[in-house]
Design a protein that fits this description.
alpha/beta, Rossmann fold, five-stranded mixed β-sheet, 37% helix, 13% strand, globular
Length: 185
């Protein structure tokens, strides 16, 4: 299966440096984010997507809808694609990083999840994806999620180095994921 993994476009919370994992908050693409999504749409114009998978956070659907203008593929929400639950909703990202600095891989703050909890959730999603019957899928998610995809598909990234991976808004990667049928043949 061909999978295209993309980070959402720039948002008002990116501009403010704030954490967001609550889909009810007013977090949306900025004019820059819309332009980034339009550029990605043009770059992916000739890819035939069977479906587009997004997180429950509106910024991923907003990005997907712009990219989908050339595809008309069904857009589906998958809960496992949600951004890391930081426990710092609406608070500064820099404060979140300070709070987890003693143990960035396993620290859970304010009922949130650790980086390793998030990684495990994304790995569960990848296992689920491998049994789907699609030829080509676009996944629109978050930087933290993209880090796990990059580490999984490109290899050579230790958990302690996940945070060293930086992915710009609307940057995408193309990977081939062997499906369950391909593995059994």
């Amino acid at each position: 299966m061909n999978i295209y993994c993309m980070r959402h476009g720039r948002t008002n919370y990116n501009d403010l440096g704030l954490c967001n994992d609550d889909p009810c908050q007013n977090v949306h693409l900025t004019a820059t984010g819309i332009a980034q999504a339009e550029s990605a749409a043009l770059a992916l114009k000739n890819v035939a997507f069977d479906r587009i998978l997004v997180s429950p956070l509106p910024r991923t659907r907003q990005t997907a809808e712009i990219v989908n203008q050339f595809h008309a593929a069904p857009i589906e929400v998958h809960a496992d694609l949600a951004d890391i639950r930081s426990g710092f909703e609406g608070r500064a990202v820099i404060d979140y990083f300070r709070a987890i600095s003693d143990d960035p891989l396993q620290m859970r703050i304010n009922g949130g999840e650790s980086l390793l909890d998030h990684k495990q959730r994304i790995m569960r999603f990848i296992d689920w994806l491998a049994v789907q019957q699609n030829k080509s899928v676009l996944i629109v998610a978050h930087e933290e999620t993209m880090r796990v995809f990059i580490a999984y598909f490109e290899g050579g990234v230790e958990d302690s180095k996940l945070r060293d991976i930086h992915v710009g808004n609307c940057v995408y990667r193309h990977y081939v994921l062997p499906t369950e049928n391909q593995l059994s043949n």
